[in-house]
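fyi for ur records
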Amino acid sequence: MGTKQKTENNKTVVIPYKPRYPQTEIHKQLEKHRFNVLVTHRQMGKTVCAINHLLKSALINQQPSPRYFYISPFLKQTKLIAWDYMRRYTAPLPGVKLSETELSVILPNGAKVWLLGADNPDALRGTYADGVVLDEYAQIKPDVFDEIVRPMLLSRQGWTLFTGTPKGQNQFYQLYQQAQKAMISRPHQWWCGVFPADQTGVISVQELAEIKEHTPENLFRQEYLCDFTADAEDVLISICDVLKSQERKYSPAEVRYAPKIMGVDPARFGTDRSVIFKRQGLQGFEPEVFCKTDQMTLAAHVALAMENFHPDAVFIDGGCGGGVIDRLRQLGFEVFEVNFGSAPLKTGQYVNKRAEMWGEMAQWLCDGGALPSNPALRADLCGIRYSFDPAGRMKLESKEDLKARSGKSPDLADALALTFAMPVMKKNGTSSFAKTEYNVL
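which gave:
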């Protein structure tokens, strides 16, 4: 079964393309947004997805003389990969004219699609575009978009799709960060999608495990887990550590002697999330996330969670949670206020309490901590960078710098980190002495 489209003359044509997940979800977003950044693992099918989005857009365009462009880093690469796809998916369409000399296609409605290489960008100057795909953008010079492609889109308000697989923290990484922030400030124009191999199902679990076994860890993280920080040495928590933790699960019996702890991170700004995170020993549970929730309502949610979970300690970020803390204490609940900038318990190892909580959380993950399979939590945990002060104490990049860089605050990870704020004993007086449960008395 192919994809049916109506052309300018109201004729139905069928593109012999049946998208699979996640292509189905990607196409939905591409049709809604003007600027799109697509980060995928190897062999996901992004080029097929891009070519077919070009074809559909061109076939339904009712403006005079529609023009579309597919651009990859090198013309030879374009001809080897994308041209074969273009011929395959246009073959059944009536009246199609292909030119292998100039790598172009004229569709039944008169729309024209060119396939080009970014190694000769001047060939694009002086024309307009209704849509442009920049494939493997990490290998394309940034000035190709800024100086050539962007002006092409002006007269027709054309769209752009940037695609690729991470290759370190280059211009594709910067664009990815820009897109994340733009999704908040201009959600109707920008979309950014990340599709690692362990989430798409395109590569079987068995095959992916075999690839991982025979591939250097950094390369596997980069090529298959879409990790831009794979080669970075200043990332506190690696995506591999998080993935391992999300594969673990402990039974209630295995953690029954460990204290139950809750961390609460109230929202700081309008786009931030308020989060309640529960943990018992080595087992972390699915966080509760609330958006645009006032402090009194959040206090009610925390109170309900405490009644259901029966925690031995509840730690709340006092920086923005003063109202939540006051309300819970007014209701008779015992909670502890945590100042992220206060002094740590391990004064010789960490600069402040925030660095200590994150450092202890990172160690907990390495020691066998188990986390829910939550993509947002994974992104929060893997985004923070660290360094050392002159005294050799670990410090984290500021939340302001992180938000300026990534466009969001690591609210889910902060809530989990709060569960490591202080040593905790079970209320019945029994403490956990499991060697991996290091934050108990």
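The two ends are 64 Å apart (CA to CA). thats all i got for now
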